[in-house]
Amino acid sequence: xxxxxxxxxxxxxxxxxxxxxxxxxxxxxxxxxxxxxxxxxxxxxxxxxxxxxxxxxxxxxxxxxxxxxxxxxxxxxxxxxxxxxxxxxxxxxxxxxxxxxxxxxxxxxxxxxxxxxxxxxxxxxxxxxxxxxxxxxxxxxxxxx
Length: 145
Ligand SMILES: [Zn+2]
Ligand SMILES: [Zn+2]
Hints:
Layout: E1 4-6, E2 27-33, E3 36-45, E4 48-54, E5 63-65, E6 76-78, E7 87-92, E8 99-104, E9 110-114, E10 122-126, H1 129-137
Antiparallel strand pairs: 1-10, 2-3, 3-4, 3-6, 4-5, 7-8, 8-9, 9-10
Bound molecules: zinc ion (2 copies).
């Protein structure tokens, strides 16, 4: 499978359907940020655990939480439904060395983000490129005979 990493202008994309690896939706329509449902995660740091809401606009780093947040601190992000860790195996932030966490998108896409507060490293990974391109550009992917 080909992997392609694209760069997109900040906030031009919006995450509409993020999931944990077990398939639970991470979207929080009951907690909109901007005009969109936010992404709800469970964040763990030291001995504090709490819900964190992320702005679903890609490139917007707004966060709402009752946890005390300190810039530079590293959080362990989990699914609020099944508590599975969203940490990416063996992947480290190229800027600060902290673990990365992953949101799964439909069609095999992923958003990878640095788990360190105020480190704004993230990338969008589109794995199923043909399905994604079909959606983006309305390509005609019907087989030709
Ligand atoms: Zn889950
Ligand atoms: Zn980082």
